[in-house]
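Please fill in the sequence for the structure shown.

STRUCTURE ENCODING:
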């Protein structure tokens, strides 16, 4: 495969947004909390609480987020502040006090790390059976680290160079990737094993490059993973998805970074060759779309022939109202982004801080949908990425005098489950699939017996 063409480079340089000045990437982690000037307006107790929480849950933020996205006059209620900075209530009281006491006692670093590891184990670091049920094997029966194959058509790849982010979301279900514990990490440097697996599995049409955030990688690494897919033996790979938060946290990646033009060229060549290149952009609030550099990044990606699809969870303290979602979707449509998913916050990490009851989530989704035109109603949800598959709440209704949730699979471990409706008893407090009970006196949902067999469970227990 040939290197990047000079003509394409010159074309990109002419359209790269030269009005934007390159910016040095500056990042802050837990050890830098006291160096963030804007935090000095907070009380010493609040800053101590942030240190305690950041000892357990990963923290990383960059200067662009601090200076351009957060409205410091609204802190702590500002949604982007809540998105990126640790808050005391993200840890349940008992867990918080255990770590806070360790800090007050001045325990050494290794003792704090040991305690943090124990506390993290109580936070369901790998939800939905992703370490037990999703890891594929090669023809010799050996586990392929850094790959997940949950749904027939889609393979997830976790390149080792992309297992961090430009900043961290405090709700992120991939938080276990960022705490420095190799036992909790999914990653691969073996590009040959990825390509061998894709050659063997011609039923796979979609490759999702995920992380962390693949857009923290240099373009040369992305080239090594993606350029070979232009060969005819990979014609069955129709769609290349790249999951990223860079359009929010570091849009400079696509505009002014030193290899931004090479990145745009790679994506263009993939698209020109007939691949559907989908940027799976994680957005949580309309504020993330407001800066000039963010909009220029969107424009460059669209000009490269990619499709940008937006997804993100419904979160208390950040976006748990219909007006914010409606404004987010309207703005995205205006900018040429396709609203794709409203997720339910996963059952991991700081879930109790961010989760919204399913009944309220459905109402927010419904009220937001009523405010947008048909072209903005492409976002599916509220959707739970649970162990059996992606389950969407389609509504609340009453059947034969019983109030119920109407549910369906958008994706399932068994493709036959997809689009099959089923019903659960209405529960105002339930926040996840495993808290729901079958309606109409049924003992189990239709898929549970088969799913139990997949997990190697024979008693049919939920």
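FILLED IN BY: designer on duty
SEQUENCE:
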């Amino acid at each position: 495969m040939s290197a990047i063409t000079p003509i394409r480079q010159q074309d990109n340089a002419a359209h790269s947004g030269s009005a934007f000045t390159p910016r040095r990437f500056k990042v802050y982690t837990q050890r830098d909390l006291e160096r963030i000037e804007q935090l000095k307006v907070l009380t010493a107790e609040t800053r101590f609480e942030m240190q305690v929480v950041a000892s357990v849950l990963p923290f990383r933020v960059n200067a662009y987020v601090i200076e351009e996205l957060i409205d410091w006059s609204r802190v702590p209620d500002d949604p982007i502040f809540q998105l990126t900075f640790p808050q005391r209530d993200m840890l349940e009281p008992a867990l918080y006090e255990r770590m806070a006491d360790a800090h007050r006692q001045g325990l050494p670093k290794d003792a704090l790390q040991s305690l943090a590891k124990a506390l993290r184990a109580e936070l369901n670091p790998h939800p939905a059976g992703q370490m037990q049920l999703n890891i594929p094997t090669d023809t010799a029966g050996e586990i392929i680290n850094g790959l997940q194959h949950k749904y027939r058509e889609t393979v997830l790849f976790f390149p080792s160079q992309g297992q961090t982010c430009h900043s961290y979301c405090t709700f992120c279900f991939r938080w276990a990737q960022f705490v420095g514990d190799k036992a909790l990490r999914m990653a691969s440097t073996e590009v040959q094993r990825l390509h061998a697996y894709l050659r063997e599995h011609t039923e796979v049409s979609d490759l999702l490059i995920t992380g962390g955030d693949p857009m923290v990688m240099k373009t040369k690494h992305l080239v090594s993973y993606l350029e070979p897919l232009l060969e005819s033996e990979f014609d069955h790979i129709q769609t290349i998805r790249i999951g990223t938060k860079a359009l929010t946290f570091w849009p400079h990646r696509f505009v002014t970074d030193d290899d931004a033009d090479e990145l745009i060229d790679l994506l263009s060549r993939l698209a020109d060759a007939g691949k559907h290149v989908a940027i799976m952009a994680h957005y949580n609030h309309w504020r993330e779309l407001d800066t000039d550099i963010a909009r220029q990044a969107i424009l460059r990606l669209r000009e490269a022939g990619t499709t940008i699809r937006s997804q993100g969870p419904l979160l208390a303290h950040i976006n748990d109202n219909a007006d914010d979602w409606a404004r987010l979707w309207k703005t995205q449509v205006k900018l040429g982004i396709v609203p794709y998913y409203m997720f339910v916050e996963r059952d991991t990490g700081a879930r109790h801080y961010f989760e919204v009851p399913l009944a309220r989530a459905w109402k927010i989704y419904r009220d937001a949908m009523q405010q947008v035109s048909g072209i903005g109603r492409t976002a599916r949800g509220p959707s739970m990425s649970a162990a059996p598959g992606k389950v969407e709440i389609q509504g609340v209704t009453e059947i034969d005098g019983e109030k119920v949730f109407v549910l369906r699979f958008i994706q399932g471990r068994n493709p036959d489950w997809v689009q099959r409706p089923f019903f659960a008893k209405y529960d105002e407090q339930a926040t996840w699939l495993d808290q729901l009970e079958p309606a109409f006196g049924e003992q189990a949902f239709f898929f549970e017996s088969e799913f139990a067999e997949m997990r190697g469970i024979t008693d049919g227990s939920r």
